[in-house]
Amino acid sequence: MKSIVKLTGVTKNYGQDEVIVKALRGVDLDIEPGEFTAMAGPSGSGKSTLLNIIGGLDRPTSGEVQVEERPINTLSRTKLSRLRRDRIGFIFQSYNLIPVLTAMENAEYVLMLQGVPIKTRREKVMEILKEVGLEDLENRFPRELSGGQQQRVAIARAIASEPALVLADEPTANVDSKTASGLLDLMAALNRDKGVTFLFSTHDHKVMERASKLLWLRDGRISYSGPPIKDLEGL
Amino acid sequence: MIVRLAWRSIWRNRRRTIITTISIGFGLAFALFFISFADGVYVQMINDGVRVQAGHVTIEHRDYRDAPAVDLYLAQSTPIRERIAKLPDVESTKLMLLGQGVAKTGLGTVGVAVIGVEPSSEARTSPLVKQIIDGRYLMDEDDALVVVGEKLAARLKLKVGKKLVLTTNDANGALTEELCRVAGIFKTGVDEIDGYLMQAPLSFLRRLYKLPPDGATQLGVVLKKPEAQKRVMSQIKPMLKDTPAAVYPWQEILPELASYVKLDKGSNVIFQAILMFLIFFTIFNTILMSILERQKEFAVLLAVGTRPSSLRGQILLESFFLGLIGTCLGLLVGGLASYALQVYGLDITKFYGEGVSISGFAISPIVHARLTPGLVLTVGGLVLAVTIILSLIPMRRATNISIADTLR
């Protein structure tokens, strides 16, 4: 099966001259379509850096990154924008919705960027908002929604354009455990029913257990890649 | 949606947007009011000056400027005058005779400047006619009658109907004098004019100075629009070929007034530039602040696939909205204030007392603003354009951010 994400020898250094922080130290990774992958590890192990590089938000210092078998290291800013718009969905820890747009407008934003006609995108987004449990809340602004509801809008925004891959940076970190469980159910259902590939970072053991694959990062390297395990000691 | 996003974004910080648009609006309103007022004063000064003197364009003997004397007169003015009067830009023409002399009464002797005028044409154009405070202005059928300034009348103890003797040298250099009576007394409020000047019918002064029937020292041309000055001068020049006459703009005939207007306009430009700088600095500051505090939002927009050029478009649109609201507000407030001043005028005697003059030229006590569509479009367009231009620097900064670093 073709990889949806393939990383070969990816390194990422921050800083200059004598003060260099090595965030990633040669990461090799393959993610196949339909996977529901959790990425975990101690703070500073490089989870967010890895997500940013896969999503084209940051560039690696060395190594190659391919998304859908297409190298993205050398893409221009505009081409990277297009890749993110059409093939990758993002879910952020702190939701990052546009405060002046309603739930509906936030969710349809990427479709608008893609030039989807307003009627089509409204119908589609209404359907997605219903799926994520936000029907009747489409005209509310983010400030009028709870944290869990805002994250559901963020999920709707991420999947509205039917991307090949959704990257989520600790999507349940800012919500209570019940809401977190609900969000996870939602992402799992989208993965199962719609085949959306998810790669998300997390610190939460319960979240890791729900994944089909677990990546454990330590000191900028993947020290474990396989099915979720309970005993993370020594990884 | 980009338009909606930009519009809602500027109202997210409502107070800042209101303060900014009011700053733009009132700055622009003040600039518009001040410029239109200054323009109005200049136009009025020039208009009053050229109408009392020898028009927007003056024809004189070509040597008269070097040594002003009545012997350097225009001998056959009538044919040229008739041709000039037919030019489409010409409102009226006037013949004048400028002379010096001594006015004597039994109670005193005073050196005077005397202007010979055609009463009916002068009455149509000169503001002096409206400044008669006693008696009446001259009429075409008058002969040995004069109007004198209030201070000159006081020094010679003259009243309407009283006699004086005007003594001078005629065009041949011979001493000559005529007895005349006071028809009216005028008051401009300017000492140099009220204490020194008298006007008499041109025909009477021709006789006094021994000039031919259509002789005059100046042929003045009053224009419908001052802007036509160069065009009219170029049309007149060929008419004066093979004559000793030459054509001059009012700026050469009234150099003090021209210098004053030029100097004052220069200082106004500096004042206006400072005002504009303050307005633009406020705009720049607001846009910059607005963008700096929304870096994370821009990073999210870029992360989800917004092209940098689209984001730049959104920021430009926000600046355009801010500028447009401020400009509309400014044009409305400034336009209404200027229009009111244009229609009703401002009595500056309340601030400066009577007899406001510049370089010896009396200004009408009621000054009017001059609000033109060109001025409104220029000032409004400038503020709007600069607002958009000022957003380019913050805009560039917003779209060049590192998405990963900003979201971290």
Task: Supply the helix-strand structural class of chain B.
Answer: alpha+beta
Average of the residue pLDDT scores of chain A: 89
User: What does the largest sheet of chain A look like?
Assistant: 6 strands, mixed
How much helix is in the residues of chain A?
25-40%
Give the largest interface pair and sizes. A-B, 27 and 25 residues
Q: What name goes with the CATH superfamily of chain A? A: P-loop containing nucleotide triphosphate hydrolases
Strand order of the largest sheet of chain B: 2-3-8-5-7-6
Total number of strands of chain A: 10
For the record, the count of structural domains of chain A works out to 1
How would you characterize this protein structure?
The complex is a heterodimer of chains A (235) and B (408). Chain A has 235 residues and is α/β, with parallel strands linked by helices. Chain A has one domain (5-225): Rossmann fold. Chain A is 35% helix and 27% strand. Chain A has seven helices and ten strands. Chain A has helices at 47-54, 77-87, 103-113, 118-131, 147-160, 177-194, 205-210, and strands spanning 5-16, 19-31, 36-40, 62-67, 70-71, 88-91, 165-169, 197-201, 213-218, 221-226. In chain A, β1 (5-16) and β2 (19-31) form a beta hairpin. The longest helix of chain A has 18 residues, at 177-194. Chain B has 408 residues and is an alpha+beta fold. Chain B folds into two domains: 2-49 and 258-407, no CATH class; 54-250, no CATH class. Chain B has 16 helices and 14 strands. Chain B has helices at residues 2-10, 14-52, 77-85, 119-125, 150-155, 191-194, 202-209, 229-236, 250-253, 255-292, 295-303, 308-344, 349-352, 373-390, 392-399, 403-407, and strands spanning 57-61, 90-105, 108-117, 132-135, 145-149, 163-169, 175-186, 197-201, 218-223, 245-249, 346-347, 357-358, 361-362, 366-367. In chain B, the strands form three sheets. A six-stranded mixed barrel of chain B has the order 2-3-8-5-7-6. In chain B, α1 crosses α12 and α12 (308-344) runs antiparallel to α14. Chain B is elongated. The relative contact order of chain B is 0.19. The model of chain B has no long low-confidence stretch (mean pLDDT 86). Classes of the chains: A alpha/beta (235), B alpha+beta (408). The A-B interface holds A 48-49, 52, 55, 57-58, 77-78, 81-82, 84-86, 90, 92, 96, 98-101, 105, 108-110, 112-113, 157 and B 1, 4-5, 8-9, 11-12, 296-297, 300-310, 402-404, 407-408.
